[in-house]
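chain below, 622 aa
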Amino acid sequence: MAKMDNLLKPKKVLPARREQGTMTLWIVLALSAAVMSVYLQTTSFDFTRYDDNYFITENPVVQQGLSLKNLAWAFTAVQNGTWQPVTWLTHMVDCQLFGLNAGWHHFTNVICHLVSTVLLFLLLSRLTTMVYPSALVAALFALHPLHVESVAWVGERRDVLSTIWWVLTMKAYFTWTLKRGTARYMLMLACFAAGLMSKPMLVSLPVILLLIDIWPLQRVSLTASGKPLLTKQNIHLVVEKLPLGVMAVGMGIIAIIATGQEGSLGTAIQYPWSFRIENALVTYVKYLMHTIWPVDLIPHYPYPASYPFWQVAGSCGILLGASLYCLKNLAKRPYLGVGWFWYLISMLPVIGLVQQGSGFAMADRYSYVPLIGIFIMVAWGGKDMMEKYGWPKLPVAVAVGLVLMVCGVLSFFQTGHWRDTETLFSYTLAKSPGNHVALQQLGVEYRERGEFDKAYTFLEEDVRLNPKNVDALANFGQLLDRMGRLREAIAYHQQAIGASPDNPELHLNLGQIKARAGDLSGAQASFVRALELQPDFLPALLNLGFTLFLEKKYDEATAQFALVLRNGPQTAEAYNGLGLIAMDQGRFDEATTSFRTALRLNPGLTHAKDNLQEIENRRQKP
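prediction:
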């Protein structure tokens, strides 16, 4: 009976789930504190001219906030070589809530990074049922200096935002594998689509899902040596991801077209395929070196003139050797293969085989997601080594803590360089003398601040070092225009057009300078050429209208302003132009209405205010 009583008596069982939940909560709080300790400083930072102008500070549509019209624009616009509707919407929300208060825009980036960090930790904990290695991966993701660029740069919102959708897609996929259902599969597709529309970086995710089928999900049948078997089950794992693959291919095509439309897609003449392959091999290894030794990180790494053979061969050997080792140990240590090929595959779209932008060999922001694979190798590899060699936990924990502390300190100071354009690119120029982008950014910053002597120093040096570079020629020409040296400004813009004859912006700028020089017919020819290249180019239509007005060709000018308003009904300057025509013709009431409409659309349009005052002055004349 005693035995029976003992059996019936409830036993005290340790509440393992509750303890694990408490530990998870403490880790989430620690990760949150770590992210904030590094990145909260950005709330006092300004925007930079490094693409923030394209996305926010000089983008009138984004600044208007959310509306049905702007929603349609977000899903149709291609700017700066990108199609990113979901990212556009977040910028619009920020502008609607905070205006152009840069600190809040930065804070949104920080929150996105924090959410990605926490979601990554929770996902890995669920996939592997191992809390501490998952926490280490998330901590390295949160604190590594290579990730500073993605977080501290408002214009790179797409990185931190798309990663949230990356992790959510993986979570939805895992949930679907546990319990199949159309609704769960559609949720996965929706998360993936949102991620693609934040940044095309997710095109590699379907392959990454195949990797996690190997480990930790163990859905792939392997031989004893770790080779996948050609079984019906394994084939089905590929087939079930085909919808994701189709979406990824479609997004890849859209991204290439968008980049090509903006003229930022490198040609085979600029970047021969042999050089692209060499650059890809070398930069794969350079990212690893920067991961281990993250110092002297800058926003723009220019191409070298060439890569020495030993560097290319050495990089090829490292990549091949590591890949073979991971494949050989796939059955015994699958996390190594999954982590390594996560890194290689997710980096592939941005490794430089498809060239874009202003000639950069690599970029820190491109490592944001790929490094998760390396961190998985480190975390689970470290765990295995502890178990194999019997390392005591306390010294290992202290060592890990010191590494994370060093990463945090380095990231804190690296973040400080992103305070504003002048700080960022003065630092860049100190680390990379003669850096074209740094010279350009500093020159334009000083030019826009009216510090022409400083601007001249940087922009002239940029032209000297890069005499055939379109941006260098155009930026120097614009500075000379601002300094009143119009003949020289025209000459430099003509050189820029010679290097890039199909760029409508260059023809617009040349036309504006010619108009200021009094050559109205030459200005009109430039505006017409810009419109031939881009028929809906509103600034060219607008400037053509004003030059026709100056020649008193009122009917033609009116037709141009009407065309502007047909394409852009909210264009205040067009109403100002119509008001000028009416005022010149003595139709003061009509002119007043036009000027007031212009001011309603753009209260800061000083020309319209001055023109209203001019009407009052004319009316008071006897």
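The CA atoms of residues 271 and 355 lie 8 Å apart. Residues 1-14 have pLDDT under 50 and may be disordered.
thats it, cya
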